[in-house]
TrEMBL record:
This is Uncharacterized protein. It comes from the Eukaryota. It comes from Opuntia streptacantha (Prickly pear cactus).
Amino acid sequence: LKESARKKGEACALYLMDLDMENLCSSVNLAGHTPLSLAIKLGFNRVTEKVLESRSLYRLTGPDGFNLLHLVTDSSVKVCRLLLDKHPELLRENNNISRWSVLHKWAEVGKLWPL
């Protein structure tokens, strides 16, 4: 999924997710990314919204213990709101490496999201 999405873009990622969203949502690649964390990191808002609005089970963490809110720096406000509405507990979690909170990460990249 990662290579296809990287080379062909968000439309390709949407197509692949439509083929078997339930199984893909629970998969993790060697780098520790799930399709959802990868979509968020790449700024694929339509893919992210589709997964978050689905009934599929998905993980709330990405590589190195970062939660999904740590990764939203290139995402839309809608994606951020969906994550905050569905998983407000993510706002209080720190990552496993720097122990930074989501607010630290957002400040580092100079973005403030709706709280």
